[in-house]
What we know:
It holds the Pfam family Asp_Glu_race. This is Hydantoin racemase. Belongs to the HyuE racemase family. The protein is α/β, with parallel strands linked by helices. Helices cover 40% and strands 14% of the residues. β7, α7 (188-195) and β8 (199-201) form a beta-alpha-beta unit. α1 (12-25) packs across α8 and α4 crosses α8 (202-215).
Amino acid sequence: MKIKVINPNTTVSMTQKIGAAARAVASPGTDILAVNPQSGPVSIESHFDEAVSVVGVLDEIRRGERENMDGYVIACFGDPGLMAARELTKKPVIGIAEAAMHVASLLATRFSVVTTMNRTIVIAEHLARNYGMEAFCNKVRAADIPVLDLEDPASGAFGRIVDECRRARDEDRAGAIVLGCGGMADLTDAISHEIGLPVIDGVSAAVKLVEAIVSLRLGTSKHGDLDYPIAKPFVGRFAYLSPESGEAAA
């Protein structure tokens, strides 16, 4: 089985960390290809960053179809471009926020999300609503740290994340913690040891869900809104997406 794990930002060190987390849980015989777009934001910390990152994500999905991938993980907690990516393939495509929230709901009756910056709280709240997780998600919290601080051991980011997780446990009465950033993928064990709760990283959860769906011989429905995109010309910088380019999605 081959799974492409897409970091939607362009920071290679974060992609390497995400790939390592994915490989750590992958089953024997599962190959993980961790990639990031060549163009786009170095971190994703706003609606604007997400919007710009989506084209790079979709390019990696289209490339993955030519590479005969069996499934895909979108490794940013905003799940940017998730539904559009599902239109491009019959293979399973799983976002890490979607995966982490669903797994957390199986482990505790209530969970809290601990993310990076305050301004992204609303993004995670909207996802919890859209995924039907509001009954389980007590609160979305932020350590208010820039995403790239996660790449710097001297930044103090880990301690601030742990402190926020403790508050989630004590003030929210959360039974589990969902980490709200792909860049936190290597922190689950250390945080769980500090706070005594299950801590769910969406990268790991998404990889296992892709493996399960592939093993069940299931894939993305092509009935209705997730059917392949309607063939039509694209112009300007997106002309390469036109069917005339020889790379029609279907």
